Each structure stands twice: as structure tokens, then as C-alpha cells.
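FAQ: What does the model actually see?

It sees only this:
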Amino acid sequence: MSIINESAHVKILEDPFGSRAFEVQDVVSDGRHRLVLTGELDLGPAAELEAMLLRLCADGTKEITLDLSKLTFMGSTGLRTVLLAKELCAQHGCEFLLIAGPKNIQRMFELTGLIDALPFQAQDPSVVPR
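And it is asked to produce this:
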């Protein structure tokens, strides 16, 4: 696994041939972090995302929003990471929000009964990173 830091942009490549790539873009505004997740959130990148979430919470971040709209796959490890993010935010007094993913991603939340238990919000197209 390689990690490339470009200021607030982290790129994690699971497969050197590019078939299983994952990327996190951290969009920061007034102490609020919107983490735009792109690609496949599975076992490999989950550990790096967890470390990033822990660092943000420990740094006194006001709010963390996980934007799932650009994910193509999320396994059970990804689901566990979302639940961990919610727990970390609660422990550190940080607001936690989610932006819904594509149908295949949302289906996992429906099947597990978490769709109504997590703080999903509507996506605001004016703040989508380019």
C-alpha cells in the first residue's frame, strides 16, 4: 500500500496496477472536515482511514462528514469504519454526518438496519469538490 499526501488530499492505492484504488479528499472549512471517499473502502484502506479519523477527532475537529457519494464498493470492514467514526466523534464531542452513497453502498445500510440509525444528510451540490 502506498500513501501520497497532497496537503489535505490523501491517496491510498491498494493495488499497484490500479484495479483497487481508494482515495480520501479532506475538504476543510471552519474546523469542519468533509472526507470525500472515492473508490473501494475495504480492508486495506480502512486502517488508514481509521487513523485519519482518530487524528481529526483528537485535534478537536468540530464536525466530520463522511461523503460516501463516490464510493464504488464498501465491504463489512468499511461499514465497521463508518460506525467507528460515529463512535469516535461521540467520544470527542464532534458532530458526525454522512452523505449517502450510490445504491449499492446504501443497500448495505438498509440490509443491516442502520439506514435510520445513522445521521445521513442531503448532499449539497455547491460544496462538492472538483
